[in-house]
Write a structure and sequence with these properties.
Rossmann fold; 46% helix; two-stranded antiparallel sheet; 3 domains; 11 strands; alpha/beta; 16 helices; five-stranded parallel sheet
Amino acid sequence: MGIRSSFRVWWPYDLIPGQTETIRPLAAELHFDLLVLVIPIWVFFLRQQSTYDLPRQNRTDLLFLRIVRAVALSTLALLAMFFILGLSDGISRSLIVAFAALSCLTIFFTRRLTIAAIRTMRRKGLDAHNIVVIGTPEEARPFIEKLNEHEDWGFRIMGVILPDGEDDLGPIPKSIEVPNLGRLADINQILEKHPVHQVFLTGRAWEKESLYTIADSCEELGVEFSMDANFLGLRVAKAELNDIEGWSVLSFTSTPSSAEALLLKRMMDMICAGLGLLVLSPLLLLTAILIKIEDPKGGVFFGQERSGLYGLTFKMWKFRSMVSNAEELRETLEAENEMDGPVFKIKNDPRITRVGRFIRKTSIDELPQLWNVLAGDMSLVGPRPPIPAEVEKYKRWQMRRLSMRPGITCIWQVSGRNNIDFDTWMKLDLQYIDNWTLFLDLKLLLKTLPVVLLRRGAS
């Protein structure tokens, strides 16, 4: 409210015609009284979204999404209370929205500072969480080495329990640097003797009886029991535990599955594409006129069938950069294709017009795809949509690039584009899918700008 009052001092002008005072003075007492509602509502939703939890492993993007979701729900609940209790008069909606936005930032940075302080404490050995790992040395080593790399997680590995009947395993390798506590048959005595917080089971080929033995022993002593969810040995897919009307289901997915993050990605696509079409409309009109002047026979836009999400086809739009009969001439140029794999590209394509060569170099020909983004067929960032005929020639491992919505730009576009071979291109797309976050999208969008402006790799 102090900022609001100060704004009225140095900006006395009306922003809305006919309104005597755009920035109205606020009743401080009334808004301070709202804290009686704000504090419990905010605390409830922040706790409901697990923002008060302090997991030993923490992803910054997920924490931020949880905070945004909690504050959004809190704000909606507060506005609903205003309506129900009839408290709308005299309350500034803009102040509530500003408070919500400020809450997101302050809570996020406060949580990050708290987590950083706790991680520093854990590096010094405080708040240690004692773990016993069950498995062969070969199975346990990757997990133990990962924990040793992250001392800030606060896990202390007390030792390894080996499977029964594996007498020829020999001593635990020195690279693991943890003691051998015994065999699986001795698990009850081991857990009773040592102050264990959690038992972690590694490996894939465990008998049903062994699982029962471990689970029962941990349950009796109140010890947390965890096991490697990737018991199928999948290389990319991640396990998620879902609930279907009380039925626990373990699902494996190799694509991003965070509904909130994907929703924010879609909202970002719609806002940016809509603003882009509006701001660039003079350039779009000028380009259309120049294309029509050079080759009046053809249309301004070129629509081509492409494969989208999970192979669903759609028409992708570009400014026409070739002569009107370009598709008919392609068969005569197949022998000059410079790309390996199913993609067709030649450096000095004779079908390209003079205007077309310029808009290709500057990537202006891609701008109509903002309409595809707005319509939901494409995203700003994602693997480029292939032609269905190219998909038919894909190797099996390359098909997974269709599991995410295609985009205008991706890792390939900021890595030299035409200057890399087809298999590397496919691997870069899969790398994007496997490591996708909203921050990665923003990073790639920022990297795309200099690539476009400097015309690197465009043809």
